[in-house]
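[Meeting: bench + compute handoff]

Bench side (C.D.) handed over the final construct sequence. Compute side (W.E.) agreed to return the predicted structure before the next meeting so the bench team could plan truncations. Sequence as handed over:
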Amino acid sequence: MDELYEKELLESLEGDDITKRSESDENEDDVTRVTKQTMENLKAGEKLMEALDICFKEIEDAEQYQKDLKAFKLRKLTQQPIPPTKNSLLAALNIEPEVYVLDVLKKIKASQLEDALLVLPFSYTVKLLKFIGIWTNPDNINKNITSISLICRTLFFCIRSNSMEFISQKDETFVKDISKLKEQLRTYLKQTVNEVGFNVSGLKFLKNQWKMNHSFEFADAEAQSELKGEGKSRKRMYTTLA
C-alpha cells in the first residue's frame, strides 16, 4: 500500500510540474507577443520619422526656391536661384515628397497607427501637420479622397495627444498653418454635406418617379356593383414590380 501511495504521489507531482511549465510557457509567449508588437509600433514610428525628415526638407527647399525665384523676378535678387537637388530616394522612386509620406502612413497597420503616432516627438508632429495641409489643399484633396479617413484619423489623434503643446504655441507661422488647415477641412466638409444633400434629394425624386410609374389602381367590378346600392365604392391598390 505504501509503495502504491508513493507512486500515485510522484505521478501527481509530475503532473503539477507539467502544468507549471505550460503556464510558464504561456506567460513567456504573452511577453514575447507584447514585446514583438511594441517593437513593430516603434519601427512604424521610426519609418514615419525617416520619411518626414527626408520629405520635409524637400518641401522647405522647394518653398525657399519659389520665394527666391519670385524675388529675382521682382529684381530684389541679382542672382537667379538654382533649383534644389531632389533627394536620391525620391528621384529613384520618381515620387513627390507628400506622396511618399502618405504611402508610408498607409503602410502602418490600423491597430498600430495611434502607437506609431504617439512615439513622434512634437517637432515631427508639426512636420506631419504640414503634410496633412498639403494633402487636403484644393489641388490634392480629390487625389487623396480614398485616404481622407486615414488623414482625418491621423489629424484628430495628433491634436488630441498634443493639445497642451498646441495651446502653448505662439509661433505666428504655426498658428497660420493650423488656421489654414482648419479652413481647408471646413470648406471640404461643407462641400461634402451639400453633395450628400443633393444626392439624397435626387434619390427621393427617383423613388417618387418609380412609384408613379409602377403603381396602378385596380377597381374590383363585383365589389363595386354590390356597393352601388349603398352609394359606396371600394378600391383595391396593387403595386406591380418591374
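W.E. noted at the follow-up: The first helix runs from residue 2 to 73. C.D. will use this when planning the next construct.
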